[in-house]
Amino acid sequence: MTTKQRVSYFYHPTCPLFYYGPSHPMKPHRMKLAHHLILTYGLYKEMECYRPHPASAGEMTQFHSEEYISFLSKVSPDNLRQFTASMQKFNAGDTTDCPVFDGLYEFTQLYTGASLDGAVQLCQNQTDIAINWSGGLHHAKKAEASGFCYVNDIVLAILELLKVHARVLYIDIDVHHGDGVEEAFYTTDRVMTLSLHKYGDFFPGTGHISDVGAKKGTGYSVNAPLNNGITDEAYFEELFKPIMDKIMDVFRPGAIVLQCGADSLAQDRLGCFNLTIKGHAACVAYVKSLGVPLLVLGGGGYTIRNVARCWAYETAVLVNKPDVPNAIPYNDYYEYYAPDYELHLGQDPTMENLNTPKMLESIRVDILQQLSDLEGAPSVGMQQVPPLFQRSESSDSVKRDRKPHAAELYDTVD
Ligand code: V1D
Ligand code: CA
């Protein structure tokens, strides 16, 4: 990739102010820490910065059920008792991972609006890379909250990208399985999902290597189930890079959505991997280098000083400034970075990597075989389609006297 990629950054100042509760590990405040690092590193000068629109109920029901979104829009800590049955049905409330907190619906509107704005800019070729660190809530289902996630901004953004692109690739480097996104696209060959995650006695419990999709989507769900303690080298060189190289060969996506959950970092409060920020960001740098329209999202991440470090550094990578100083610049939240006040993290030397070279090889070989099996079974838009102007009038459904809708073009522009 030689030409400079345009980067759009979406941040709403209200988003970090929402509060899941004192004993809940999800802290939207981490976005404010990340944003201040991004500002004080001067990275805002390298991107177009936008305040996203709040997504409407109509936008959310492109995926979610009307009844579920109506519930989210009405329930509050003050009227909980009127919603006892719905709370059970939709998996929300204090006995679940998904509490009903003040402003819950507005929170979902803001993080979802930011992902949709990013997707729309990518579709309109107004940017090459769109960043929304408040998004990436990969567990939310059509009519159910799950794992701290209420509205699935990722599914909604992918649906937007599918209006223009024949094939969209979703990549999930959060330590948890990206189950909500996988489930939404399990039976289609237009979305390939790749999740690397801890598997075995760990939330959400899905993402076995043999879960490969169904019907037309068979082979298009890709899962790398891992054990505790995976290191940079094993994660990137043994799995991420070879799998991604093969995916690019066989799937040729028109757009990519990358969920950058930072709970896969060493020393995360909930995670159990041993990645450094450089290892995590190597995945981001690799995906950027492909030069495909890219939506970059947040996700999990529970040691909030490290989440901020990670997403600020990944922003630097995305704007071609990977050499930002390791010394954290002075900012409103400087004390969070004590005692070293440095950007980069070391590995946890006490953590054993329970992923043996044999296990990693077996995962890689199985997944590469799964992907090879897709070759020769052409899916939507995989066949070579001549450009519009070369197509004969009879085979060309696009009328010449009007501007074609983007969806009519997708198989020719990829
Ligand atoms: F530790 C906790 C304290 C308070 C409330 C919840 C938790 C907690 C930790 N881990 N909850 C979990 C996970 N839930 C369970 C439950 C047991 N079962 C009945 C369910 O183990 C949920 C972890 C969610 C991870 C979310 C995510 O990091 O993947 C994410 N990605 O984008 C946004 C969030
Ligand atoms: Ca994952």
Bound small molecules, deduplicated: ligand V1D, calcium ion
Q: Supply the number of helical segments.
A: 12
Question: Which series of helices and strands comes N to C?
Answer: EHEHHHHEHEHEEHEHEHHH
Low-confidence stretches: 384-414
Strand proportion, as a percent range, falls in 5-15%
- Average pLDDT reading: 92
In what order do the strands lie side by side in the largest sheet?
2-1-3-8-7-4-5-6
The radius of gyration is: 21 Å
Question: Which structural class should the secondary elements be placed in?
Answer: alpha/beta
- Number of E strands: 8
Shape: globular
Number of domains: 1
End-to-end Cα distance: 17 Å
Helix content: 25-40%
Major β-sheet profile: 8 strands, parallel
CATH 2nd-level architecture: 3-Layer(aba) Sandwich
* Top-tier CATH class: Alpha Beta
According to CATH, the homologous superfamily is Histone deacetylase domain
